[in-house]
Amino acid sequence: MATSSQQRICIGPKVPTHADNPITMLLPCPSSGLPARYVIQDGGLYEMQMVDSEGLRSWFVGDTIQSDGALYLITPFDPVFMLIPILDTMRQKTADAEGRFLMLEGIFGSCSDQYPSLRHLADLKNIDKYLALVCDVRDSKSASMRTFRLDDEKVMEWLKKKVDVFVSKFETIPALVDSIAYTESLPEACRSEAITQSALKLISANLSDSWATKLSANYQFPELDKLESRTQLPNMSDYGKRSGMDLDDEPKAKEVKKPKMSVGQRKLAKASTAGMKPMTSFFAKKT
Length: 287
Fold this sequence. Notes:
Blueprint: E1 2-4, E2 9-11, E3 23-28, E4 35-41, E5 44-51, E6 59-61, E7 64-66, E8 71-76, H1 79-90, E9 102-103, H2 104-108, H3 127-134, E10 135-138, E11 147-150, H4 152-168, H5 174-179, H6 188-204, H7 209-216, H8 222-230, H9 237-243, H10 263-270
Parallel strand pairs: 1-7, 2-8
Antiparallel strand pairs: 3-4, 4-5, 5-8, 6-7, 9-11, 10-11
Helix pairs in contact: 1-3, 4-6, 6-8
């Protein structure tokens, strides 16, 4: 039996048989800025997470042994979450100016050597529509001359709609169902706020600290606050572990706790960063 070092065991969405080969790449995680693995397949963006990679494990694949015993999960990832920090940096907003408008090639064309794969985001299907969701757009006679600039109000409107979608579909989202299990015996008002709060945390897990704080400022949870002032809620650490959210401690007002890093992110974080530039330098104008 031969040993293979090229194959990987992945679980992901079914793709058309005519689709091009996937592009696997390292991109800055929208929430932490750390390197994370993503895939572009058939014009869509996917997040790759490595599961259960620690320890001595292997896979039997046909007549070969795959020495990498990790399991890779590939799930759809909304490109807008990836675009927000890039656009935020690229517009170069100041206290005196709203920032600059950029063409599509200008947004993704100023990539550093550390993340050259960022240029592939320009090839995502419907990339113009994704940009228009959170940007002011200036049209011209030529479609190639259309320019974009991140708009804070549009970003916030889009994020709040995301929270609303999660709330409306919470029964179909296991992470949300687990996170509100402690509310079964509570009044409906408390349960409703708990659902919204959990949806807010799931969305905030894909945002930087600054954007998560801005989003959190739009929500109030008076019934949960009253409940906390009267009694001690059950320990939520078990639900947090299963859902991927840190629910053990309630966040302070207008403050959202950072999500824990995945196994893959922890390994990448331990890698040597000597000579690496900060994320803001990836998009600096070259001279």
